[in-house]
Amino acid sequence: MSFSDDKERAVTQDQVTAFYDGMVFPSKTSHKAYEELVPTNLNGMKVGDFGCGQSLFIDVFKKLKYDAVFLDISQNALATIDYGEKIHASLTDIPLEDNYMDIIFCIGVVHHIPEMEKAISEIARVMKKGGKLYLGVYSDTSLQAQIRKYYDNNPQQMEIEYYKRI
Questions:
Q1: Regarding predicted confidence, which is higher, 116 or 27?
Q2: Which of 16, 32, 53, 90 has its CA 20 to 30 A from that of 113?
Q3: Is the pLDDT at 71 greater than 90, yes or no?
Q4: Position 159 pLDDT exceeds 60
Q5: Contact 114/10 with Cβ under 8 angstroms?
Q6: What residue spans define the domains of the chain?
Q7: Interatomic CA distance for residues 70 and 52, integer angstroms
Q8: Which residues make Cβ contacts (< 8 Å) with residue 99, sequence separation at least 6?
Q9: Bridge partners of 68?
Q10: For residue 131, what is the enclosing H or E element?
């Protein structure tokens, strides 16, 4: 059973948006491992980082001078982006024309969206025929997923631990 199918713990898109809009984005870092995912021959193409947050790819997109589109539900996250086109929107309602994007990177995002299937459908709609999607999702069996399940079942403990870290 997927998280979005669990009626007892179902989360709305508005709740997800409010959570991410409330986050503080203190640093801006690209990661070498993610840079290596980006092909170096995409000039003249529309390249997107959807659900970008602070963007794992911004430095490499800048370096390669790509025509970049950064899309996120968080205004705070988009405020950290200083390159390309910024779009404040949900992946379930992407305000782009059909067949607009050549390449989309969407790393660590869709599994957080209550209407995951709708988000995937929207990404497919805006992707050009023959385009490429680099999609990263967390495994249900990863250590990170196990920790998240623990905290989902013990929300007060999560809040206490979160505030201790701040």
A1: 116
A2: 32
A3: yes
A4: no
A5: yes
A6: 3-165
A7: 6
A8: 126, 127, 128, 129
A9: 47
A10: strand 127-136
